[in-house]
Amino acid sequence: MKSLYENIHDMLCCHSLPNNYNKLDIKLQRKMKEIKRNASGQISFKSIDSIIMKFPQFKEGLKEIRGVFQHYDEDSNGTIDHEELKKCLHTLSFCIRDEEIDDLYYYCDINQNEGIQFNEFIVLLCLTYLLTDSSQTLKICSPRIEATFITITEVFLFLDKNGDGNLKRKDVVKALNEACPTEKSPSHITRTRFKEMDWDKNGKVSFKEFLFAFISWVGIELIDSDDECPA
Ligand SMILES: [Ca+2]
Ligand SMILES: [Ca+2]
Ligand SMILES: [Ca+2]
């Protein structure tokens, strides 16, 4: 359990890193807009139901990522530290510089200063894949993981109706209503789901926030019970 002092320290640390957060948020938003533009009209999902039907495949993909995580967590402490992460991304031959790895490490370490746990690792790997143009890398070493990331990206694009690279509440409401047009989802349920996703409470859900919500939606039971779940 963290002391009050440690919590305040974490908050201050968080505030001393706005440039990294900001930089990656903007980069990611731009990337999602670009993918949406290029994919216009070719998104395979038409409804929330069609997404839920893919859950077994998502789970298979997440299991494979778990294998990668365990392999690179050399001291098996349930956490990937800086050195383990560098080794992992370089061995998988992503085109990424050490400074970029550091930025992603802090960006994805949402419970801060405790290294990268499995759920953070899934997000980190997906963002590395999207932001570094290393699609060939992943295609060769794990087609299933690549397919999983592509499909998760499509889920986001399905929800991002106006294609601005972030999810607004009305996008999410609209998507949930499309799931069942005759029976509108009660607005408090939609509001709760949206609040769950919008961690930094800035009124919009970034792709990173969406990823954390999505993987817990697909199957949080994949994460070891002794791993602390940030939430
Ligand atoms: Ca470790
Ligand atoms: Ca962490
Ligand atoms: Ca947000």
UniProtKB/TrEMBL annotation:
Q: Does the keyword Repeat apply?
A: yes
Tell me the keywords, alphabetical order.
Calcium, Repeat
Is Transferase found in the keyword set?
Answer: no
Name all EF-hand domain ranges.
60-95, 185-220
* Protein name per the record: EF-hand domain-containing protein
Q: Which organism is it from?
A: Penstemon smallii
